[in-house]
Amino acid sequence: MSLIPEQHKEHIKNELAEKMENPVKLILFTQQIECPFCAQTRQLVEELASLNEKIEVEIYDFLVNSEKAKKYDVDKVPAVIISGEKDYGIRFYGVPHGYEFQTFLETILNVSRGKTNLPQDTKNKLKEINIPVHIQVFVTLTCPYCPLVAEMAYKFALESDMIKAEVIDINEFPHIGHKYGVMGVPKTVINEKIEVVGAIPEDIFLENMLLAVHSTIPEK
Fold first, then answer.
1. Are residues 175 and 120 both part of a single domain?
2. Which of 72, 96, 114 is the last residue of a domain?
3. Dihedral, CA atoms, 67, 70, 74, 76, nearest 10 degrees?
4. Among 25, 29, 58, 120, whose Cα sits 20 to 30 Å from the Cα of 181?
């Protein structure tokens, strides 16, 4: 059974044909045991890749290819990396389905273009960041407000080499949700220091991220 509804495939195919510019690689880390959602994730990325020749799928076994997982800093499965001319630090942990599918699709298009529609002032501030930033956005696939924050995190990562953005479905990784005390989604954790709950506008997201950056800079 197809994970992408047949009635939507033609529309997605046309959108990809119209908007894809450069090739995009979907790097999937999976395993056959103790990963109930890995098979679904593989099916979804392969279905999506079949709709446009510029989308390539690269698949690794998380256990067998542990060195490759370490290289990409992947520590759980299923994991999908959206990579273009380079690895932009964009990760999705879980099945990018439900409300998150459109986020996944839009991010593929942005990676293909190598740029986003963020305001130039925001881009300039992102370019000034000179220490690593780790953004974790906790979501569920049934949350209509989560894609706004998830897509924003991905855009920030695409515009800055210092930012890594991970979107994590807490229904697939409940132990991580418990670790970070996720009681509602979306919840964003930045550099393990700043936590923000709810869908927030771009300027507030940026403000919190810069606050995390400044609080991370070691004292001289």
1. yes
2. 114
3. 60
4. 29
